[in-house]
Design a protein that fits this description.
It contains eleven helices and nine strands. With 303 residues, the protein is an alpha/beta fold. It comes from Martelella mediterranea DSM 17316.
Length: 303
């Protein structure tokens, strides 16, 4: 099998379908907000929100994956309410710029906080799976649902996230070639480097995917996104992206973009004095990146 096929199996793509069970639309600060409820194949309810500009004209979209931050109560509320690592809530900002934005709640967070992360992860690992795999499988199903909507331009959907959401943003984009672009902040590093630096335990048990490092490091995984556009945002003072682990990963990802002849589609925002937080420079770069690769139908988006 190819690396992408191996990753699709590890990441449980197509193994966690979601079925829409409720959809309620309301007005929210001049935007259209849909309160969504999906059901897993096991009957668990999954809360979600879709925020979009008013009108019926099809628009580009962002699958926005929420963060962890040991704040299990936030979940999908990040879309409208933000979190400490963000400058301000990003959902309304994206929608005001002309994008539809979908966020669903990951298992162990928000209304799905029981069972918790540890119990869910251990149950999955004992069965040869991972909680990260369930999370990614559900995000893949959310992408499918989003792409099927008539008010969405299906070939102009990006994936975005910070921290946990960042990792899943580039993992999912690597496994799903229909994703047009990926932008991620504060979670891009080589895990072997994190292990050597003694920082790997800063990640939760949810992220443990057995055997992943025998297949590829994060730099190689992110390299599978090439030649599609990718934005990477890191801070040198972030313990999850220390320079030694970041630089190993970035050399691999940059090499993949060089081989694809697409170095102009790889954007790096590296902040020497920043920690595990979004910075004004990161936000400005994300907006410019999405406007360039999603808002227009130019050649920048093509493979």
């Amino acid at each position: 099998m190819t690396l992408r096929q191996d990753l699709r199996e590890k990441f449980e793509i197509s193994a966690h379908p979601l079925t829409l069970s409720e959809r309620i639309g309301i007005q929210h600060e001049g935007l259209v907000l849909e309160r969504l409820t999906f059901a897993t194949s096991d009957g668990e309810s999954v809360r979600g929100f879709l925020l979009r500009p008013p009108g019926e004209t099809p628009v580009p979209a962002i699958l926005y994956i929420h963060a962890h931050g040991n704040a299990y109560d936030i979940g999908a509320d990040e879309l409208l309410s933000g979190r400490k690592a963000l400058l301000s809530p990003l959902g309304p900002e994206f929608a005001r710029r002309g994008y539809a934005v979908l966020m669903i709640e990951l298992p162990a967070f928000g209304t799905r906080s029981s069972p918790g992360e540890s119990a869910r992860a251990k149950a999955a690992l004992w069965n040869g799976k991972s909680l990260a795999g369930q999370m990614l499988g559900e995000q893949a199903a959310a992408f499918d649902w989003l792409a099927s909507r008539p008010d969405i331009i299906a070939d102009r959907i990006a994936v975005f996230g910070i921290s946990m959401g960042a990792t899943f943003s580039y993992w999912l984009a690597a496994a799903e070639p229909r994703i047009a672009a990926s932008a991620h902040l504060c979670a891009y590093a080589d895990y072997a480097g994190l292990i050597d630096a003694g920082n790997i335990d800063l990640h939760g048990i949810y992220l443990t995917v057995p055997g992943l490092l025998t297949l590829a490091g994060n730099g190689e995984i992110a390299g599978l996104i090439a030649p599609r556009p990718q934005l990477i945002g890191v801070g040198d003072l972030d313990p999850l992206t220390p320079p030694v682990a970041f630089e190993t990963a970035f050399a691999q990802t940059r090499g993949a973009y060089e081989e694809a002849g697409a170095t102009d589609r790889l954007v790096l925002v590296r902040e020497p004095e920043a920690g595990h937080v979004e910075t004004p420079a990161m936000r400005a770069a994300v907006f410019a990146f999405l406007d360039r690769h999603l808002a227009s139908s130019g050649e920048d988006r093509s493979d």
